[in-house]
Amino acid sequence: MSQDGTSEPQTEGDLRNTGMSLKHDREWDYELDRIIEEIEARDASKVGLQFPEGLKRRGPAVADDLRELAPDVTFMLSGQPCYGACDLDTYLMRRTDVFVHFGHSAMKESDRIIYVPLFSNVDPYPIMEDSLEELADPADDPDVGLVTTAQHMNLFGDMVDWLEERDYNVHTRRGDDRLTYEGQVLGCNYASADIDAEQVLYVGGGKFHPLGLAMEHPDKNVVIADPVNNVVTIADPEQFMKQRYASVHKAMGSEKWGVIFCTKIGQGRWEIAEKIIENNDNAYLITMDEVTPDRLRNFNMDAFVNTGCPRITTDDGPRFHKPMLTPGEYEIAVGNKPLDSLEFDTFHGTW
Ligand code: SF4
């Protein structure tokens, strides 16, 4: 599944479970001229290209365009699954001079990596206009937080101005090291919404991010202005929370626990995984890159706890044959923490 930037996981408009179809065609800015400039500046002869899942089909055409602009350079495509900037193809990176990662902003800066976030060309203002219906009137409550994904970051400053012109007092925040931009959210990190406002406007495609945001900040009213699907909705995490409580209940009483440590470069939480197995003789550490139901089926476990991407647990959890919990949910299931401590699993720091 998923998980970030564009790609968290649904790169072209996260339509899962929404029953909606794309209202606007998205066009992405591949920034080919910048890529060529940077390749030339580094005198690179071998270049790796990595696309998130939703855009892999465009990879060969982008490689063709780049070949035309730089005929002496060899371009190679990564076929590894990719859902976030946490998910770089390190094998291809080691074998190329420059590695271009499309669809996400930098999680970790490196001289050899060119991040191309793929800014969207969709105009957000008509749907922001509609979203005013759901925001409090500025005369009653002018404070509003503003967040978006990497794809709309090129317009973030303008969106702030747009709200201020309508008498809102806009609160924005740069999250932590996992985030590149002020106001940016990831599927595993909503630190940019830790702001002093009771309402947050999320501008972006799909419900993937705002649901996580609403789970992480249950005290805030999260208004979704989705310029891709052309709808305004309020994030309602209740069904998500019910599903999480159900998984925790199902896992209670489990004896054998599989503790998944994800080997993707930006998803490892070794200390958390190690602490669990140190304190539970019936817990077994299992390392893997892609965490899929098929890969876990042969392990004879009663339940799993996933220390990798939290969205695998929250979004794909029901697809696994045994309950799959986040580390915090595991603590509840084994009785170390009370049920009401259940919260969204977020991920901080890089690697
Ligand atoms: S760990 Fe975070 S950045 Fe990586 S795929 Fe999951 S949600 Fe996205």
TrEMBL record:
Keywords: 4Fe-4S, Iron, Iron-sulfur, Metal-binding, S-adenosyl-L-methionine, Transferase. Residues 1-10 have a biased composition (Polar residues). Its cofactor is [4Fe-4S] cluster. This is 2-(3-amino-3-carboxypropyl)histidine synthase. It is an enzyme of class 2 (transferase). It catalyses: L-histidyl-[translation elongation factor 2] + S-adenosyl-L-methionine = 2-[(3S)-amino-3-carboxypropyl]-L-histidyl-[translation elongation factor 2] + S-methyl-5'-thioadenosine + H(+). Pfam families: Diphthamide_syn. Its EC number is 2.5.1.108. Pathway: Protein modification; peptidyl-diphthamide biosynthesis. Belongs to the DPH1/DPH2 family. It comes from Natronocalculus amylovorans. Residues 1-20 are annotated as: Disordered.
